[in-house]
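User: My collaborator sent over this chain with a note saying "see what the structure looks like." That's all I know about it. Can you take a look?
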Amino acid sequence: MEHFRKLERMYHASPCNDAIDPTLDIKDQGQAELRIAVDESDHHAAGAVHGSYYFKALDDATFFAANSLVEDVFMLTTDFHLQLTRPVSEGELIATAEVVNDHPKQLIADGVLHDSEGNQLARGTGTFSKSSVELTAEVGYE
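Assistant: Without extra context I'll predict from the sequence alone. Here is the result:
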């Protein structure tokens, strides 16, 4: 679907992703997957990947699962709950997300983060609302 590809291009062109180089794939309406390669350069002092990478992967995946259902405006994360369940040191973070509540005033999406071996690393739930920012070429939606 063209809407999905435009959202993916908008995401990949965002400056905040330059150093991380994530890969977004909007699978279907209300479903997205995000991948981020991690290594020792992403570690905190105790030798595992910092939780901010877990949050980014899950927030981005759930956000785009939600925005895949909205074709006119940019969504906003209004609330996010994160549960860290397992540390990881290297490999790939794989976040899968699905919208579980599609309401006109807000959407709720659940996400699960796994490593490349299938181990669950974290879970997250985001609440998203419509903004006043239109999806246009000015925000990279092209």
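A starting point for your reply to your collaborator: Strands lie at 23-28, 31-38, 73-84, 91-102, 107-114, 120-134.
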